[in-house]
Amino acid sequence: MSDVHSAAIRSKNMRAIKNKDTKPEIIIRQALHARGLRFRLHVKTLPGTPDIVLPKFKTVVFVNGCFWHGHRCHLSKTPKTRTEFWLSKISANMSRDVLIYKKLSDAGWRIAVIWECGIKGCGNQKLNALISEFVEWLNDPKSLGFELP
User: Fold this and answer.
1) Which domain, by its residues, includes 37?
2) Is the dihedral angle over the CA atoms 30, 121, 148, 88 positive or is it negative?
3) pLDDT at residue 103, rounded to an integer
C-alpha cells in the first residue's frame, strides 16, 4: 500500500516528531525541579544523550516513548501498514537502548527509565507519588536501576 502523502509532506510530518522536550519529559523535569533537584539536559558527551542528567547523583534519566522504544503496554501498538519496517525499526531501537544502558552502567552511571504510559494522563497526586518513588530511589546509592512503571 502506498503512502497517502507525497514524499515532501511525509518528510515534513516526520521532521515535526520531536525527540527532545516532549510533553512527558517536560512534566518530569517540572516535577523534579519543584522538588529542588537540579539537572542538565541532553548531555551529548554521554552515550545515548540522556534526557535528564543529575550529576550530583551520577544518574541519567531517559523519558521513553512507549511506541518508539517497544514498551509492552497499551500505547505501543504495531502499525498495520509497513509492519515489517516498524518491527525492525523498534527492535533496532530496543537493541540500541540496551547497548547505551550498558555503556552508561560500565561508566558508573545509575540509569532511570520513565515510560510515557506511566505519566500520560495521570493526575497531580499520582505524579507526586511517582516522583516520590523516584526521589527515594535517587537517594539510595546502592540501587542501580529504576523503571517507571
Assistant:
1) 18-148
2) negative
3) 98
- Give the CATH number, domain containing residue 49: 3.40.960.10
Q: Kindly indicate the confidence band of residue 18, based on its pLDDT and cuts at 50, 70 and 90.
A: low
> At residue 8, does pLDDT exceed 90?
no
Report d(CA 142, CA 63) in Å as an integer: 22
- Contacts of 21-26 with C-beta under 8 Å, sequence gap 24+, read 22/63, 22/65, 24/63, 24/65, 24/114, 24/116, 24/119, 24/120, 25/51, 25/52, 25/63
pTM for this predicted structure? 0.87
Q: Are 123 and 131 in contact (CB under 8 A)?
A: no
